[in-house]
Amino acid sequence: MNNNQNKYIEGPIIQIEEPAILFRISQRYREGLSENELYQITRGEWVIGSRREHAKYAFAVYQGIIVEVYQIKKWFPFTGKTPSKYQRWCFVGSIAEHLQHYKGGSVKHYFKQGGVNPVTYINC
Fold it and tell me: What is the mean pLDDT of residues 67-83?
Protein backbone atom coordinates (compact mmCIF):
# COMPACT_ATOMS: atom_id res chain seq x y z
CA MET A 1 0.00 0.00 0.00
CA ASN A 2 1.50 3.35 -0.98
CA ASN A 3 1.45 6.47 1.18
CA ASN A 4 -1.50 8.03 -0.68
CA GLN A 5 -3.72 4.98 -0.13
CA ASN A 6 -2.76 4.81 3.54
CA LYS A 7 -3.37 8.47 4.42
CA TYR A 8 -6.76 7.87 6.07
CA ILE A 9 -5.91 4.71 8.03
CA GLU A 10 -4.50 6.36 11.17
CA GLY A 11 -4.32 9.86 12.56
CA PRO A 12 -3.88 11.65 15.87
CA ILE A 13 -6.81 11.20 18.26
CA ILE A 14 -8.99 14.31 18.17
CA GLN A 15 -11.19 15.72 20.94
CA ILE A 16 -13.94 17.86 19.44
CA GLU A 17 -14.98 20.88 21.52
CA GLU A 18 -17.62 22.29 19.17
CA PRO A 19 -21.26 21.15 18.85
CA ALA A 20 -20.98 18.86 15.86
CA ILE A 21 -22.26 15.83 14.04
CA LEU A 22 -19.94 13.15 12.71
CA PHE A 23 -21.16 11.64 9.44
CA ARG A 24 -19.58 8.35 8.44
CA ILE A 25 -19.42 8.50 4.66
CA SER A 26 -17.34 5.37 4.17
CA GLN A 27 -19.83 3.65 1.86
CA ARG A 28 -19.88 6.55 -0.60
CA TYR A 29 -16.33 7.85 -0.24
CA ARG A 30 -13.71 7.14 -2.85
CA GLU A 31 -10.25 8.54 -3.49
CA GLY A 32 -10.25 11.51 -5.83
CA LEU A 33 -13.67 12.97 -4.97
CA SER A 34 -13.98 16.61 -5.93
CA GLU A 35 -14.62 19.19 -3.20
CA ASN A 36 -18.25 19.45 -4.38
CA GLU A 37 -18.76 15.66 -4.50
CA LEU A 38 -17.48 15.33 -0.94
CA TYR A 39 -19.80 18.13 0.20
CA GLN A 40 -22.81 16.54 -1.53
CA ILE A 41 -22.33 13.13 0.09
CA THR A 42 -21.67 14.72 3.49
CA ARG A 43 -24.65 17.10 3.47
CA GLY A 44 -26.60 13.98 2.80
CA GLU A 45 -30.00 12.70 3.11
CA TRP A 46 -29.77 11.58 6.70
CA VAL A 47 -32.34 10.05 9.04
CA ILE A 48 -31.50 12.38 11.89
CA GLY A 49 -33.36 13.71 14.91
CA SER A 50 -34.06 17.20 16.17
CA ARG A 51 -30.67 17.34 17.95
CA ARG A 52 -29.33 18.31 14.51
CA GLU A 53 -30.51 21.87 15.24
CA HIS A 54 -27.91 22.21 18.01
CA ALA A 55 -24.95 21.21 15.81
CA LYS A 56 -22.90 24.00 14.28
CA TYR A 57 -20.50 21.75 12.35
CA ALA A 58 -20.62 18.60 10.23
CA PHE A 59 -17.57 16.35 10.05
CA ALA A 60 -17.12 14.06 7.06
CA VAL A 61 -15.53 10.87 8.42
CA TYR A 62 -13.95 8.08 6.37
CA GLN A 63 -12.66 4.99 8.18
CA GLY A 64 -12.69 6.94 11.45
CA ILE A 65 -10.60 9.82 10.07
CA ILE A 66 -11.89 13.36 9.45
CA VAL A 67 -11.65 14.26 5.78
CA GLU A 68 -13.51 17.60 5.90
CA VAL A 69 -15.35 19.94 8.28
CA TYR A 70 -18.35 22.05 7.27
CA GLN A 71 -20.14 24.87 9.04
CA ILE A 72 -23.86 24.11 9.00
CA LYS A 73 -25.98 27.07 7.95
CA LYS A 74 -29.43 25.47 7.72
CA TRP A 75 -31.25 22.12 7.65
CA PHE A 76 -33.87 21.17 5.07
CA PRO A 77 -36.15 18.15 4.71
CA PHE A 78 -34.88 15.92 1.92
CA THR A 79 -37.54 15.76 -0.78
CA GLY A 80 -36.08 13.07 -3.03
CA LYS A 81 -37.09 9.43 -3.11
CA THR A 82 -35.55 7.05 -0.59
CA PRO A 83 -36.30 3.45 0.40
CA SER A 84 -37.04 4.59 3.96
CA LYS A 85 -40.34 5.68 5.46
CA TYR A 86 -38.45 8.02 7.82
CA GLN A 87 -37.99 11.72 7.14
CA ARG A 88 -34.50 12.47 5.90
CA TRP A 89 -32.64 15.75 6.24
CA CYS A 90 -29.81 17.55 4.48
CA PHE A 91 -27.87 20.65 5.42
CA VAL A 92 -26.56 23.66 3.55
CA GLY A 93 -23.14 24.80 4.63
CA SER A 94 -19.62 25.67 3.68
CA ILE A 95 -16.13 24.49 4.53
CA ALA A 96 -15.22 25.56 8.07
CA GLU A 97 -11.86 27.13 7.27
CA HIS A 98 -11.11 27.82 10.95
CA LEU A 99 -11.50 24.11 11.84
CA GLN A 100 -9.20 22.63 9.20
CA HIS A 101 -6.80 21.57 11.96
CA TYR A 102 -9.19 18.66 12.63
CA LYS A 103 -8.63 17.14 9.18
CA GLY A 104 -6.66 13.93 9.29
CA GLY A 105 -7.49 13.35 12.95
CA SER A 106 -9.00 10.15 14.31
CA VAL A 107 -12.50 10.16 15.78
CA LYS A 108 -12.78 6.37 16.02
CA HIS A 109 -13.19 6.66 19.79
CA TYR A 110 -16.54 8.46 19.29
CA PHE A 111 -18.10 5.43 17.59
CA LYS A 112 -19.34 2.42 19.54
CA GLN A 113 -17.69 -0.88 18.65
CA GLY A 114 -19.97 -2.69 16.20
CA GLY A 115 -22.27 0.34 15.86
CA VAL A 116 -23.86 0.84 12.46
CA ASN A 117 -25.42 4.28 12.84
CA PRO A 118 -23.59 6.62 10.44
CA VAL A 119 -24.49 9.68 12.55
CA THR A 120 -22.90 10.60 15.89
CA TYR A 121 -23.64 13.77 17.85
CA ILE A 122 -20.84 15.53 19.72
CA ASN A 123 -21.60 18.24 22.33
CA CYS A 124 -25.20 18.71 21.19
Answer: 90
Mean pLDDT along residues 90-114: 95
Please check whether residue 102 is in contact with residue 96, taking contact to mean a CB–CB distance below 8 angstroms. no
pLDDT(80) > 80: no
The verdict on residue 3 lying in a domain is no
CA distances from 93 to 9, 10, 63 (A): 27, 27, 23
Tell me whether residue 15 is in a domain: no
Whether the predicted pLDDT of 17 surpasses 80: yes
Phi-psi region of 44 (alpha: psi -120 to 50; beta: other; left: phi over 0): left
User: E strands of 29-115, at which residues?
Assistant: 57-62, 65-77, 89-95
Strand pairing report for 20-24 and 119-122: antiparallel
Does the pTM surpass 0.85? The reply is: yes
| Domain hosting residue 94, numbered range | 20-122
Count up the domains in the chain and report the number: 1
* Residue 2, in any domain of the structure: no
Could you tell me if residue 13 is inside a domain?
Answer: no
> Helix H segments across 29-100?
35-43
